[in-house]
Amino acid sequence: MAGVSGERKGKKDDNGIGTAIDFVLSNAKLVLGVGGAAMLGIATLAVKRMYDRAISAPTSPTKMDQSGKRSWEEPSWLGSSPRLLNCDMKSTVSRSLQTLPTSSHAFEPDCVRRVTGRGGPRKAELQHARMRLSLQERLWAFYRQCVAIPAGEQAAARRAALDICAELRVFLHSKLPDMPLREMYLSGSLYDDLQVVTADHAQLMVPLVLEKNLWSPVPGEDTIMNVPGFWLVRRENLEYFPRGSSYWDRCVVGGYLSPKSVLEVFEKLVAGSINWPAIGSVLDYIIRPVVPSETLTLEVQYETDRRLYVDFLPLIVMEDGVSLIAKPHRWAERHENLWRQSFRVAETARLRTLDQEDGGCRCLCLKVGKAICKLNPALTHLSSSQLTNALLLLSETEHDWTQGALADRFLGLLRALVGHLEAGRLPCALNPKVNLFCELTPQEVDELGYTLYCALSNPESLLRTA
């Protein structure tokens, strides 16, 4: 009740009607529960916004609302925590999106918009307006303070990853000289200058060599599972080349090369055969395998307060350039033999090319989004690939990607993600048949959609997660 009373200060007398509305919204959770309160809040949002705007007109052209609230904002309790959306609420959210602001100018303080239209602003009012950071300024401050990683920290993490790569290369060549592998290499956002917050993750790519006449790739959409973006690798010509003709026949399950079995082979070697404590003492690191892990991951403590996680990823590169990695489908028990197609290299190259063509802020917007998802527990299910593809799709409709448009493009990204989540589908920009939300549960889709929907009314709240 105290919060409700505080928000009414500075407004004209409304005969208690606005207070009654705020009281109902603030206490609906006690009567209707979380779901009912959310539905009631959305249903009354438009009415309350119109009513507040009508009664918020200042009695004097120079008087500003002391609470600093904007007339289009939703009730403060609406964005306090993520809530689930049922079907009726989803349609309401979709309609409500049409009324939300799409430009960063909507986030300017009310006093700035009022005084700039009068031509004769008071000096005190302008000084007060300048003290309030715009969304654009807050995004840049968030980038400098939370997103960007110092060059020295990145260099130290890369050196540690390179040391681990060298040790693994020597061990595998000496222990299993007949294992058909191409040269291993390091990859990931640490090497694309797209890592955020801390330099704590790298990928060690291990390309396998498969005989052309013994193995054939099968797209996931051409199988009974119908999963675009994943592939099967089928063993062929068994009548002429029986099992054992290929080194990787030991990893065949049900006639297909199993990424899980390939990972198990490397896990026995990397996690079970290598004396990491001895190697760590030579390198002055503490190295240990991460257990449990969906992929083979090494944790490397290379400084007292710094850790690096190195993912060991077997890789198949087909003749047409399609890259398949042994990163299992989230529902691996149903899709055990599926290899994941990796679009990361092509996505990153396309994003950088677009930025170079117009001096754009796409990569900057991506890094801000990644940091927000990393620091906000409610958004951890949004991956870098999903954010990248949402930006690539947004680039097809938005053309101003200058540095000065960062705030507008950031809001556009939030709005686009809400729309994709409401539809339950985010198509891959490089292959529209692939739904990048296919591994999310309906509950996770609802939680992400509602969290981002609430953030549209107060985007700066996402920047306070650090």
Map the helices and strands.
Blueprint lengths: L1 H7 L8 H39 L31 H10 L13 H7 L6 H8 L4 H13 L3 H25 L9 E3 L1 H4 L8 E7 L7 E5 L10 E6 L16 E2 L2 E2 L1 H12 L5 H8 L2 E4 L6 E8 L2 E12 L5 E3 L13 E3 L2 H15 L3 H14 L8 H12 L10 H18 L18 H16 L9
Parallel strand pairs: 2-9
Antiparallel strand pairs: 1-2, 3-4, 4-11, 5-6, 7-8, 8-9, 9-10, 10-11
Helix pairs in contact: 2-3, 6-12, 11-13, 12-13, 13-14, 14-15
Could you please describe the fold and organization of this structure?
This protein has helices at residues 2-8, 17-55, 87-96, 110-116, 123-130, 135-147, 151-175, 189-192, 259-270, 276-283, 344-358, 362-375, 384-395, 406-423, 442-457; strands spanning 185-187, 201-207, 215-219, 230-235, 252-253, 256-257, 286-289, 296-303, 306-317, 323-325, 339-341. It has 15 helices and eleven strands. The radius of gyration is 27 Å and the shape is globular. The strands form two sheets. Strands 1, 2, 3, 4, 7, 8, 9, 10 and 11 form a nine-stranded mixed sheet that branches. A two-stranded antiparallel sheet has the order 5-6. The chain has 466 residues and is an alpha+beta fold. α2 packs parallel to α3 (87-96), α11 (344-358) packs across α13 (384-395) and α14 runs antiparallel to α15 (442-457). A hairpin with a 5-residue loop joins β9 and β10.
